[in-house]
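Risk register update: the risk that structure generation would not scale has been downgraded. Supporting records follow, first protein first.
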Amino acid sequence: MTDATTADRPAIAVLGAGKIGEALLSGLLTGGRRADELMFTERHRERSGELTTRYGIRGVDVATAAKEAGVLIVAVKPQDIDPVLDELAPAVGRDTLVVSLCAGLPTSLYERRLPEGVPVVRVMPNTPMVVGEAMSAISPGRHASAAHLETVEQVLGTVGLVVRVPESQQDAVTALSGSGPAYFFYLVEAMIDAGILLGLPRAVAEKLIIQSAVGAAAMLARTGEHPVTLREAVTSPAGTTIMAIRELENHGVRAALLAAIEAARDRSEELGNAHKTG
């Protein structure tokens, strides 16, 4: 990375080493970062020791991370953000890029609580980050430049794909791709249950459905075809697939999915609104 923010302090610190934080550290190592260029914060001493042993990365406190790292990636739970910001406020400077992976939290929260001029980029990742297949959407705060966005793209590009969106669209992103993997897991779970209902052993049903999901996703990603086109290619006249599709439509599955994603968007807005003022 060559952006001015990280030129003198190339280290990256991940604040909060849960599943997402660990996945990001692992991805950065795989992407060519040295262990001595990375650090993390973790409240639980045992967990910190495990990560240091596993990756050779140093566990530090928030003040040390703010002093030594040019990029601070905040990966704590949204409800835990206040004590982290309290620790960051006296330690972080305008030459440090703050990247928030906290669902629902607006850049204005960080800009209000941290020193004036600190650049902030908001990110909505998702859990496939743990297998290097994340979908992350990034949005700049008031003080974040194009160079800051490029830095974040380089970091997150080690664990998946990245798109830029206006921050006003982040709640929609949260509902669609942030929560999206759960919808697929829910559907796969139901399809496996259907296989068992039809008399298949669970192990066989799981293998059939999981590989079908992997293959279908690969077709969508690699062919560039619209999902309607791909679905129609499987749907023969008076065949088995069209009968199944008719039942899905009769039971309002499409409408239920639209309503579910809207509800997730509304909840993301509620979480963000709680931190917009005060």
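Supporting record for the second protein:
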Amino acid sequence: MEETSAPGTMVKILSSLPSKAPDRSIKHVFRTSDRATFEAVQLWEGEHGAYSMCMSAQAGCRQGCTHCATTFARTPFVRNLNAEEITAAVEHLQERVRAQQGPLVWVDFAGVGEASANWAHVTTAARTIVGRGLAQQVKVTSIAPRAWVRSLLKPNSWLPDRLMFSLHGANTAQRRVIIPRADDPSTVLPLWAAVADLRPVVLNYVLCDHNTRPEDEAALAELLAPYAGRFLILRLSSFNPVQGSPLHPSSREEQFIAALSRDLSGWTVSHHLSAGRETTAACGQLRAETLDLPTPTKRPGL
């Protein structure tokens, strides 16, 4: 498609990919003035009759998560996005969304990159997004490292309206197969629960062959049992295969979901089925599969 620029900036939409009806989501790849690329996705929220937006925090990511297409891209990490670039991309899509369906209900920093690793720019952009009425709420998805979570618990810290923390394993070794830099679940869960006393927190657990064995059902139920009623939901997410990933979709999804729903008393367990596997729906997948650009020039100090 023809490139279009976001208002007042050199951020441009480089490529767009609509999903099949009735989903109505549209994934966009943005390009910055130094040719860094990132994604933003318009998501149709049918129950609200409006759109939300999945937004990136970085051009690429350093975390190396094995379920994410960004890890296997030719340029997995380039740099942090600055607040102005983030806000400009949101403003550009917000104008499109308003023309199609009305106001943007929320922006979720769940796209390419780790929000906690670019927190100063994310919080500045989030305040601007809400302050200017570009969206009604801001949400954040993160692997939730200990140091960052502790910073959220400090007095007067800015907090998003809702958070989703990525668990993906019942112990350190298992979790690090998916998130190589992950903390021990037993040490971060008390901190996550403290944040959940301040804001609604969803725990996300991607379902793959690696972490859905019968023994994993018991281990996860034992880990989470003491936190009944503290978190909003346990979100069990089907794995969307990406090129290069050593992980595979679980052959035991139904049994695993049934076991957790039965054994986790006091928890709300939900299943998120990965939509659009045929339309590069995984985070970073469109950027990784369709772009072949020169390596961007990194900006000093970012």
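The first helix runs from residue 83 to 101. On this basis the risk owner (M.S.) recommends closing the item.
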